[in-house]
Write a structure and sequence with these properties.
globular; alpha+beta; 3-stranded antiparallel β-sheet; 5-stranded antiparallel β-sheet; about 220 residues
């Protein structure tokens, strides 16, 4: 995937979410920059490959955050591994294969954000049956998509949902693998909604180049 395709991902997601959200998507091998001492210490404790992913993810998040806050702020790390953004902001980081990205917004516009990247490949039924039902995946026929590819899109959405809800619900995070998700085509993206007892989420997913990119916005 070239830089024009990555820009396409950013533009398509921003077009749906509005200017109140900031996104940065890139290649792990190309995203690098200065981190805080706190972030460098975390990176130094990791293996070489994991360190590269962590650094690229933090750089993407800092660029996305900086475009709406104007500051180069430290992004902390929770005990469970998810990023903790500065007060007044929420965000999510993802990396898969060669891709890395981050989605950030102000808490004035949402209470949780999830962002996930998967490589665009078809999943076998033994794999997708662990997180989706046959009836769920059967919707692929209506959308003209191969079942395994559609299942991978569902997985990407459920991962974004988990990331958006997990910091809010802590130990009460729902088992999203059992949640029925139905995607509907809307222009060049596939959209769905998730309504829980405390929060509701709007989600989207798109396929560009060799990647699947999904976002989830949680509101009360």
């Amino acid at each position: 995937m070239d830089n024009s395709s990555l820009t396409q991902v950013e533009n398509q997601i921003k077009a749906h979410l509005s200017q109140n959200f900031s996104i940065k998507v890139g290649l792990i091998t190309e995203l690098d920059g200065d981190l805080s001492q706190y972030e460098e210490e975390i990176a130094d404790s990791m293996s070489v490959s994991r360190r590269r992913e962590f650094r690229a993810g933090r750089v993407a998040a800092k660029q996305a955050l900086g475009s709406i806050s104007g500051d180069n702020q430290v992004i902390l790390r929770a005990e469970r591994g998810y990023p903790i953004f500065p007060e007044g902001f929420v965000g999510s980081i993802s990396h898969k294969g060669p891709y890395v990205g981050a989605l950030v917004s102000s808490t004035d516009h949402c209470v949780g954000l999830g962002f996930d990247i998967e490589e665009d490949e078809s999943l076998s039924e033994p794999v997708w049956s662990t997180f989706a039902s046959v009836e769920e995946v059967a919707v692929s026929e209506q959308l003209g998509l191969e079942a395994g590819v559609y299942a991978n899109m569902l997985f990407c959405v459920k991962e974004a949902l988990f990331k958006s809800l997990s910091p809010l619900l802590r130990e009460d995070t729902p088992e999203l693998s059992s949640q029925v998700i139905t995607l509907k085509k809307q222009k060049n993206q596939y959209i769905t909604k998730f309504v829980g007892d405390q929060y509701h989420c709007e989600c989207g997913v798109l396929r560009v180049g060799g990647g699947i990119f999904s976002w989830a916005v949680t509101k009360r």
